[in-house]
Write a structure and sequence with these properties.
The protein has 242 residues and is mostly helical. It has ten helices and no strands. 80% of the residues lie in helices and 0% in strands.
Length: 242
């Protein structure tokens, strides 16, 4: 989102409206198993559930924003984009339940810290330690698929650069989005590989889960690098006009 980009899809079409409805359904699926609390213990449990629910919402909104920016920038609605968009939405709906399950496990260290034995026992009953690695594989493949489809959508937009009359800075931003989604999709595959390599060990899920913490240093380095290149390109374009 920047002032240098000429937005070609400011008027949303039926494809974007349909996609938004699917994202709304994905959020509904997060709540579908949550019943209204009828006593204080359930209120307390509901308060704990707010943490994984919030994490799920944040991740889904991030994915939705990437999707939103794509259509805002390029306004592409041809057959290939519709096919990619359909595949993307199918994966998002699949991704919701592994995401919901894995974020609930975040409650374990919190419950251990405050000494809530009820939640600890509930979480232990959800999954066996030896099955966590398989969970990370399922989750990782879902996450990787989401971002690689987005990458393909941006790659297709870049292949239509002449048709869309993308400027030099717009082409740079499009390539940056391709690289960003490549990184976002590759790290889950690394997590999957680690889970497979240490599959029979109890710590496999822990190590593969910690892999996602690499997003922070990687994007700190990548973001600063892209920003420098983008600023240099803008200076070069400004100098060529004077």
């Amino acid at each position: 989102m920047n002032a240098e980009f000429n937005y070609r899809g400011e008027e949303p079409g039926r494809l974007e409206n349909f996609s938004d409805a699917v994202f709304a359904l994905a959020i509904t699926l997060l709540l579908i198993s949550t019943s209204p609390p009828t006593n204080f213990e359930q209120i307390r449990r509901f308060t704990y559930d707010l943490i994984p629910f919030s994490l799920c919402i944040v991740i889904i909104i991030m994915i939705w924003h990437e999707h939103y920016v794509f259509y805002l920038r390029y306004g592409l609605r041809n057959t290939k984009v519709i096919l990619l968009n359909t595949l993307f939405l199918v994966i998002v709906l699949f991704y919701v339940y592994p995401l919901k399950f894995i974020t609930k496990l975040v409650l374990y260290p919190i419950a251990s810290l405050v000494g809530n034995k009820g939640i600890i026992l509930e979480l232990k009953a959800m999954i066996r330690g030896e099955d966590v690695a398989e969970l990370m594989i399922i989750y990782g493949l879902g996450a990787a698929s989401v971002f690689f489809v987005l990458r393909q959508m941006y790659s297709y937009a870049y292949s239509c650069a002449d048709q869309l009359e993308l400027s030099e800075i717009e082409r740079f931003d499009t390539k940056s989005k391709i690289a960003t989604n490549t990184i976002l999709g590759t790290l889950p595959l690394v997590s999957v590989l680690i889970a497979i390599l240490f599959f029979k060990n109890w710590y496999a899920g822990l190590i593969s889960g910690m892999t996602y913490l690499l997003y922070t240093p990687i994007f700190f380095w990548y973001g600063s690098r892209v920003e420098k290149k983008r600023k240099a390109l803008l200076d070069e374009i400004a100098a060529s006009k004077t």
